[in-house]
Design goal:
The chain is α+β, with helices and mostly antiparallel strands and 265 residues long. The chain has one domain (8-262): Alpha-Beta Complex (Creatine Amidinohydrolase), CATH 3.90.230.10. It contains 4 helices and 17 strands. The longest helix is centred in the N-terminal third of the chain and has 22 residues, at 8-29.
Length: 265
Amino acid sequence: MAIPLLGEQAIERTRHAGRAAAATLAHVAERLAAGVSTADIDAWVREDTARRGGHPSQLGFHGFPAAVCTSRNDVVCHGVPRAEERLRPGDIVNVDVTTRLDGFHGDTSATFCIGEVSAEARHVVEVARRCREAGVAVVRHGVRLGDVGAAIEEVARAGGCSVVREYGGHGIGKAMHGPPLVMHVGPRGQGVKLKAGMAITVEPMVNLGRPEVKLLADGWTVVTADGSLSAQFEHTVVVTRDGCEVMTGCAGRAALAPAASGLSA
């Protein structure tokens, strides 16, 4: 399947969707605290997305039962919100928001610390954030996806962490998920060559322990195989001639509250 190249109008619509998703994520982040249920997060995402004129892209996608993914502690991705799952002091939780607005999608996530967390938890969150930033910094016209993945992998390895290989980023625009598959590992010089106008997500999933994962019986929730902590940060970006434009740049900037600090998304 061909990878779409977005024109100016499509880029503008993707920009609006990305900003809406980022604003919803920031809205949720301000309310995170011990005692909040992941079902509360789902409700807040539904309410805020609607208030901005959008629709939660994840709701019903391939049967997904919620409007947001909430991935806590050893959950790598696709955590399903539940009324009985409540945040506790010392938790880390990734909140993954995707908004469809005016026919285009914006996708972003950040991992937040609930109260005081262990040094190990803070470390994996910070490494995951730096991994995303390293990947975004490489994106530009003419670069191969293997170069993006290698940059991410090097930062993770330097921090004593690992990058999940079974899941990656994706193309985005009119479709929430499309080509190319964005792997967050190398090698350099291989993979799809990026072109100006391509829209992709950069969203490395970083484990404190080994990279292997397993799928739980609900068919959605992915956890670390060794039970170690996992963290993730995500941006939607559009490739340009000299770099990329981050469509979701404000994600997490309002989240620096004592109860829930999202390390600078």
